[in-house]
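Need a sequence for this fold. Nothing fancy.
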């Protein structure tokens, strides 16, 4: 019964972790805007989080039996195990020096990330306020 009580905060924490990782990657990209041959970093977590939530909502499971330490599993088994994936955006180059950081794109992405982070943090605050009210009986 208590497992469902904390699924919301666990989901929101994973979203905040992903948005923080994206913000860090954007900051690194902006710091290296004039570095020759620097390739922009990107962070993905939404698609993996969405797949994990769809799998848990449908009741489907990809759980594998792991009986040896060197065996691997197919992705995270719970929202708490989900980690953001950082990758380097290669193949495109904005300038002759090989740098592919587009400052306009990075600033737009930074604004979107900030808005998303604030929205998720607000949801988490409301969730904790609701739990506090339930505990206090108000």
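Here you go.
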């Amino acid at each position: 019964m208590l497992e469902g009580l904390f699924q919301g905060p666990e989901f929101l924490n994973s979203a905040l972790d992903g948005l923080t990782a994206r913000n860090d990657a954007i900051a690194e990209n902006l710091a290296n805007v004039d570095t020759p041959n620097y390739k922009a970093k990107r962070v993905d977590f939404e698609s993996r989080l969405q797949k994990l939530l769809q799998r848990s909502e449908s009741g489907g499971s990809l759980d594998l039996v792991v009986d040896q330490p060197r065996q691997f599993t197919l992705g995270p088994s719970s929202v708490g195990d989900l980690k953001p994936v950082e990758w380097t955006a290669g193949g495109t180059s904005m300038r002759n020096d090989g740098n592919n950081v587009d400052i306009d794109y990075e600033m737009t992405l930074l604004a979107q990330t900030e808005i998303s982070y604030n929205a998720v943090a607000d949801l988490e605050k409301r969730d904790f306020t609701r739990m506090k009210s339930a505990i206090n009986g108000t």
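For context: Residues 103-136 form the longest helix (34 residues).
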